[in-house]
Specification:
zymogen; about 35% helix; binds 2-acetamido-2-deoxy-beta-D-glucopyranose; alpha+beta; 10 helices; Cathepsin B, Chain A; globular; ten-stranded mixed beta sheet; two-stranded antiparallel sheet; about 375 residues
């Protein structure tokens, strides 16, 4: 019964999912369909309470996240958006029952504002010329569960603020891990250096970017690509430490890169194939990987394994893949779901202490489609 209804659901959805990108409208029209086959979960009932008492929960939300609105109109408008987002969270809960969706610090933002200010992956940029194709690795003896946090290769969760610089955090995260593997030291690296200085990329036909036209390539808060950031770092010589070139979340400043303060350098970087076993093998062998993802479901995400029935593969957010697990809780699936463990850059107050879990096995939200690994240069400690 459980299986057959899910099967029907999948058939129904897969026919529509290929034609429709994820939009609020497309979810709306399929809602009716979904209601017939997906039973209400307890998280969904909790969301009903939130919706009934939206104003009360809005004032708690304003307090909890220290929100300040310019005037009464702004306050009223944000309450309206908040209510819409509660309905959206309820829909997300229904479509994504193995995760928990609800109020997050982004609950007063429209999906458009959220996308503009907190994502920032520019997938139109071409692959840099120095990118390698990752060689095929053996996958026979991969561990069933793996997490680079247990091996000291991951720095604390950072916060990109209101700036589309996700790509720089994904890139530093990968290089921090690679540098740890090469040197045995975990050093937090500078995103601001990438935001201020990384403006050289090519599109299909031209070298289009230079320091004078920062809006046409890896463009600070306007977005960028992790492979472009690796290319920049390779060419520039390396990245400074976070503390030497601290993050401001603004991209109007000049490049202040100081070559004498390089803390980690890129040896080479590679694009990993779309195969999940290869992604896991590269992760285990080379450290955390830079990945692109579609973030539509992340605005309302609170915890659990996100495994939405529909999610477009249109990538718009850069994050860091740090591990995987074999047995996530899945209330409706009657079995454990395997998942990827993802480090995000929205601070610890989002998701599971800043982390996101997304199911493995079918390129959910495009998580397998833009994966890159970086290798750091082995350094011998300088003699005093
Ligand atoms: C590459 O950039 C140049 C200069 O901005 C532009 O004229 C050209 O159309 C771009 N090509 C592609 C394929 O985007
Ligand atoms: C990348 O760099 C690492 C570390 O220096 C090296 O072991 C590896 O062979 C390099 N890979 C390629 C494809 O050049």
């Amino acid at each position: 019964m459980e299986f057959s209804s899910r099967f029907v659901l999948l058939i129904l959805l897969s026919t529509t999912a290929v034609v429709l990108a994820y939009t609020e409208e497309s979810i709306e029209t399929q809602d009716l369909l979904i209601r017939q086959v997906v039973p209400e979960s307890s998280s969904s009932n909790q969301l009903d309470d939130l919706i009934l008492n939206a104003e009360h929960h809005f004032s708690n939300f304003v307090k909890e996240f220290g929100k300040v609105y310019a005037d009464i109109e702004e306050h009223a408008y944000r309450l309206k958006v908040f209510k819409k987002n509660l309905l959206r969270a309820k829909r997300h809960q229904k479509f994504d029952p193995s995760a928990v969706h609800g109020i997050t610090k982004f609950s007063d933002l429209t999906p458009r504002e959220f996308k503009r200010n907190y994502l920032g992956l520019r997938r139109k940029l071409d692959l840099p010329s120095d990118a390698n194709q990752a060689p095929i690795l053996p996958t026979k003896d991969l561990p069933t569960d793996f997490d680079w946090r247990d091996h000291g290769a991951v720095t604390g969760v950072k916060n990109q603020g209101t700036c589309g610089s996700c790509w720089s955090f994904s890139a530093t995260g990968a290089l921090e891990g690679a540098n740890f593997l090469a040197t045995g030291k975990l050093v937090s690296l500078s995103e601001q250096q990438l935001v201020d200085c990384d403006h050289v990329v090519r599109n299909r036909s031209f070298l289009i970017c230079d320091a004078e036209s920062p809006s046409s390539c890896d463009a600070g808060c306007g977005g960028g690509l992790m492979t472009s950031a690796f290319e920049y770092t390779l060419k520039a010589g390396g990245l400074e430490k976070e503390e030497d070139y601290p993050y401001t979340g603004k991209d109007r400043g000049p490049c202040k890169f100081d070559k004498t303060k390089i803390a980690a350098s890129v040896s080479n970087f590679s694009v990993v194939s779309l195969d999940e076993e290869q992604i896991a093998a590269n992760l285990v062998q080379h450290g955390p990987l830079a990945v692109g993802i579609n973030a539509a479901w992340m605005q309302t995400y609170i915890g659990g394994v996100s495994c939405p029935y529909i999610c477009t593969h249109r990538l718009n957010h850069g994050v860091l893949l740090v591990g995987y697990g074999s047995a996530g809780h899945a209330p409706l699936r009657m079995k454990d779901v395997p998942y990827w463990i993802i480090k995000n850059s929205w601070g610890e107050s989002w998701g599971e202490k800043g982390y996101y879990k997304i199911c493995r096995g079918h390129n959910a939200c495009g998580v397998d489609s833009m994966v890159s690994s970086v290798a750091a240069i082995h350094t011998t400690p300088a003699k005093p």
